[in-house]
Structure formats: C-alpha cells, structure tokens
Amino acid sequence: MTDNPPGFFTGTEMPDAGWWEALWPDPVGVLTAVGVKPGMKVIDLCSGDGWFTLQIAKIAHQVVAIDIDRDLLEVARRRLAESGVTNCDFVTGDAYELAGLVSGGTDFVFMANAFHGVPDRPRLSRAVRAVLNPGGRFAIVNWHRRPREETVVLGEPRGPKGELRLSPEQTTEAVETSGLKLADLVEIPPYHYGAVFG
Fold this sequence. Notes:
It is a single chain. The protein is of the alpha/beta class. The chain contains seven helices and nine strands, in the order ααβαβαβαβαβββαββ. It has one domain (29-197): Vaccinia Virus protein VP39 (Rossmann fold, 3-Layer(aba) Sandwich). It has helices at residues 19-23, 27-34, 51-59, 70-82, 98-101, 121-131, 168-176, and strands spanning 41-45, 62-67, 88-92, 106-112, 132-143, 152-153, 156-157, 182-188, 192-197. The strands form two sheets. Strands 3-2-1-4-5-9-8 form a seven-stranded mixed beta sheet. A two-stranded antiparallel sheet has the order 6-7. Helix 6 links the parallel strand 4 and strand 5 (132-143). It is globular, with a radius of gyration of 15 Å.
C-alpha cells in the first residue's frame, strides 16, 4: 500500500535541493541522448520542479510541463521565469488524462524518474500514444534495476526501492502493450537508461 495522495505515483518524490545537479550535471546531454531536438513540441510528463523542463525549453520550440503537484509546478514556473524562458506552459493534472490536458498533438513526451511508480503502466502508455504526432517519440528515463546501496548520490543511497525499479525489458514490455515500439535504448550514466519508443 502507499501513503501517496490520489494520482501521485509511488516512489517519485522530489529529492533535496542539489540532488539533481549531482546526479545529472549535464541535463542537456540526457535530453540529446534520448532524442529531444530543436523545433519539437515536447511534453515533460511528471515534470516535478522543472530541472529538465528548463533545459527542454532551451532546445525545443514549445514545452508543456505537466505534474499533479501544484507546488512543484510553481517551483518550475519560477525556475523558468528566472531564466527568462517563455516557451513553456504549466499544467496541473493527472498523467493518465494526458489527452485532456494538452491541445493538439506533440512530437515528444519525456518522463524521467517516474515510470517505475506508475500503477498502470499500459494505461499511461496508451495515454501517451494518443497525443503523439506521427513519428512522435516517448522517452522514459529509468533507474537501472540495481540495489539502492549501489546507487549513491551525495554520499547516500538514492532512488526508488529495489522492488520498484524496472529493467529495460520490463519497461519495454509495459509500453509496447500500447502499440508503441522500442526505437532506441541508451545508457545514461551513472545509474539510468533511456528507453525511447515510437
């Protein structure tokens, strides 16, 4: 059982300040590795405090940051405003209801550190597929299935519990039920992989 409020995914709480920076000092490198490109309309799904949203906005034509947590979206909004970024919309809502949260299709859906906590992964994958333009991509950045003791950030074991972590094969199996197919699988050091579907 989980103590998370309705709509919040298990084991996807935001870390302490400085944690993202230590784990991913080069967020643009992560985004480039999974295929975010200039000119795209991108959804940052379960965007949290906007660590990746800001960098997506610097690359893409348009970004929609979606999260169920209004407070985190406000942190993201401030982060982007302080950087002078204006090509991002912020939407509070449930990831399963994606089609009702965005207008028109999108070229790319990016989701980092959240897919492991989704109770109904095939349902979420269908929701993503429904908003993708032809040729669109869905990128999931996940923790490798390793013991938490082996994924140390800032001197402490970090990431979701071991039983929540998904192998690339488990992620692929869950997403491909939607009709999307694995297009690329990339390593994202030190502890993650990026599975890209189209």
